């Protein structure tokens, strides 16, 4: 394609839309520069070598701290946010420690939540777990009966089951209120 102003090859193509009107300009580098349109220059060899050296030094840095088990690097962890295997925790312990402390607001160990009465091996814990299981079965049975009552349009029975669910602290399913 020729330049809009001369017979040179157009290397700069500009498309603008103003007030719904599309305007295309095809210019050679000289005319593009005259009109203030920046022309991408060919990168200098010194710049290309500098970019390559920088990339190689960054790769060497991340390669040096790889997990011996799965070969995941700390740089890959930082990029994706996932460790490769359980051995990564030991391999990157020094780097992960501050991150874990920050995530747990100063604690270096994760402590999850569990019910106080849950499985400490005592009779009370076993009884509590049995009661929880029985309650879950009862709630599931009532929910199923409520669903059937709604399907069969037995609204008085459905209302009674809904109230029973509320009394047990369980919100009724959608469309059952």
Describe this structure in words.
- The protein has seven helices and two strands, in the order ββααααααα.
- The chain is mainly alpha-helical.
- It has a two-stranded antiparallel sheet.
- Helix 6 runs antiparallel to helix 7.
Search tags:
177 residues, mainly alpha, two-stranded antiparallel sheet, 7 helices
What's the topology here?
Elements: E1 12-18, E2 21-27, H1 29-34, H2 45-63, H3 74-80, H4 87-91, H5 93-103, H6 123-151, H7 155-167
Antiparallel strand pairs: 1-2
Mean pLDDT: 79
Main beta-sheet strand count, sense and barrel state: 2 strands, antiparallel
Cα radius of gyration in angstroms? 35 Å
Strand percentage, roughly? 5-15%
> What class, by secondary structure content?
mainly alpha
Strand order of the largest sheet: 1-2
Strand and helix order: EEHHHHHHH
Distance between the termini: 71 Å
Helix share, percent? 40-55%
Overall shape: it is: flat
**Individual helix count:** 7
The count of strands amounts to: 2
List segments where confidence is low: pLDDT < 50 over at least 5 consecutive residues: none
């Amino acid at each position: 394609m020729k330049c809009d102003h001369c017979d040179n090859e157009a290397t700069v193509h500009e498309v603008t839309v103003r007030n719904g009107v599309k305007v295309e300009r095809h210019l050679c580098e000289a005319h593009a520069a005259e009109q203030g349109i920046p022309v991408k220059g060919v990168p200098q060899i010194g710049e290309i070598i500098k970019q390559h050296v920088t990339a190689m030094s960054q790769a060497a840095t991340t390669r040096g701290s790889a997990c011996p088990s799965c070969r995941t690097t700390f740089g890959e962890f930082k990029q994706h946010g996932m460790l490769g295997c359980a051995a990564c925790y030991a391999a990157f312990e020094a780097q992960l420690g501050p991150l874990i402390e920050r995530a747990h607001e100063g604690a270096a160990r994760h402590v999850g939540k569990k019910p106080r009465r849950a499985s400490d091996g005592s009779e009370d814990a076993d009884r509590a777990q049995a009661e929880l299981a029985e309650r879950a079965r009862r709630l599931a049975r009532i929910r199923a009966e409520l669903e059937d009552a709604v399907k069969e349009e037995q609204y008085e029975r459905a209302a009674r089951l809904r109230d029973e669910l509320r009394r047990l602290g369980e919100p009724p399913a959608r469309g059952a209120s």
